[in-house]
Amino acid sequence: MRIFILISILASSNLLSFKTCAEETLNVAVLVASKGQRMAYEHLAIEFEKQHPDIHINYLSQNDKHYKHSIHQWLTQTKGLDVLYWQAGLRLNQIAAQGLLEPLDELWQAQHWQKHFPKGIQAIIRQDDHIYGLPYSYYQWGFYYKKSLFSQLNITAPQTWAEFISVCEKLKSSGVTPIVVGGKGLWPIASWFDYLNLRINGLAFHQQVMKGHIPYTDVRVRNVFSKWKQLIDLGYFIPTMNNKNWQEALPYIYRDIAGMTLLGNFAEQHIAKKRSDDIAFFHFPQIDQNIPLHEETPIEIFVIPKNAPNKAAAKLFLTFVGRPDIQESLNEELGYIAPHNQAKKNPYYDPHPNIEMKENNRGLAQYYDRDTAELMAIEGVKIMSAFLNNADVELTTHNLEEVRLQAFADDHVQP
Fold first, then answer.
1. How many structural domains comprise the chain?
2. 3-state secondary structure at position 404
3. What is the CATH number of the domain that holds 151?
4. Within a domain: 364
5. C-alpha to C-alpha distance for 250 and 180, rounded to whole angstroms
């Protein structure tokens, strides 16, 4: 069994003691959120080593919180790691702009990847006319619900906002609270702001908000919170869920206490197996028919640091991961979707035909904490969490604006 090394162990251990007798060791850092994900990366390494027996994959794994704290150290130390997991969006752009990543333009051209990955994805991992990552997974956000409950109440998955409100009313009148949000971790709450902003104001506006270019007190942002407030005031959310994380909120769906929850496809890894056949997914409904259905689609990538000591082997690894068959098998285990157009998609997750990824060149959002400044993300989700319990639009937008002015102070933001 391959050894996944936690950084807390590395701090007091000699990395060389974990090396095998292989001629070359490729040190790869991955963010692991579950046992299933750990095994997916393990199987990826086994398959790679079968084809490259002179290269041994040595994983360094951390959870989300620790990984995001460690990556700056890895990127700036004299001798770095060879391959890093990272996330598309502003977080990628920031480290690329600092010259900390190896451009992958030649590798993309040699592998003809520009023909095999959606243009929307390519645009997100491009910075100053250079491509800095290989996308290997993505997932979409949307609503999870219990099919048998919807069938019992004669409810069909909504496609428009009017239909969504009707669904909420039917659930509420039947004694089922329409929506549950596990707010303990805070960040899942931001999906509501993201999607309402995308559906009301569109992607271009949303991106400007994320970059700090538009005040949160702007009337268009206030309209987003006003729409959200309507749902809260109508009693569509289960209140005071700040003591439950998103995993703990799922049983509310199983037991018909709540009708829906807004989550990413990663939820499938945690949906109880005995319930999985009865849990389905629909996309966030359309609010304005004049605004395209831009999706919240976080993209997982591998990058090669500028300080990587084994860049040739690192590019071999990325070439391997860029194959459609490898992306297909990896994502089947991860519970995500393969971005390579020739890879088969999991029908459970695959987007609705009218917004299928391979045809969607209209642009994608990454997620609130991936698309905005770190301080804005940290404090913003706290303020949005408070909004769920006290839907004060004026106070919320004022507090968010105060954070924006701090988070983007160096960017000369508009007051």
1. 2
2. helix
3. 3.40.190.10
4. no
5. 8
**What does the pLDDT look like over 362-404, one tens digit per residue?**
578 999 999 999 899 999 999 999 999 899 999 999 999 999 9
Range of the domain at 102: 4-139+299-359
Strands 141-146 and 258-264: antiparallel
Same-domain status, 90 and 226: no
What tens digit of pLDDT does each residue of 28-54 get? 999 988 888 899 999 999 999 999 999
CA distance 17 to 20: 8
In a domain, 248, yes or no: yes
Question: What's the confidence (pLDDT) of residue 168?
Answer: 98
Please tell me whether residues 252 and 392 are part of one structural domain.
yes
- Encode pLDDT of 54-105 as tens digits: 999 999 999 887 898 899 999 999 999 999 999 998 889 889 999 999 999 9
Check whether residue 392 and residue 257 sit in a common domain: yes
Handedness of CA 364, 368, 369, 373 (dihedral sign): positive
| One domain, residues 167 and 239 | yes
CA-to-CA distance for 43 and 402, rounded, in angstroms? 47
**Helix axis angle, 311-321 to 324-334, nearest 10°:** 80
Q: What's the burial of 377, exposed, middle or buried (CB within 10 Å: 0-12/13-18/19+)?
A: buried
Q: What is the pLDDT of residue 104?
A: 97
Shared-domain flag, residues 285 and 389: yes
Largest CA distance in the chain: 67
Question: Residue 35 contacts by C-beta under 8 Å, 6 or more apart in sequence?
Answer: none
What's phi and psi for 62, nearest 5 deg?
-145, 160
Identify the segments of the chain with pLDDT beneath 50.
3, 5-22, 348-361, 413-415
How confident is the prediction for the chain on average, in pLDDT?
88
Inside any domain, residue 368: no
- The answer to whether position 367 is within a domain reads no
* CA distance linking residue 206 with residue 53, whole number of Å: 47
SS3 assignment, position 100: coil
- Paired residues of 258 in beta bridges: 177
Please provide the size of the chain in residues.
415
Cα separation of 368 and 211, whole Å? Answer: 11
Question: Cα–Cα distance between 365 and 354 in angstroms, integer?
Answer: 17
**61 and 185 fall within a common domain:** no
Same structural domain for residues 111 and 65? yes
- 153 with 246, same domain: the answer is yes
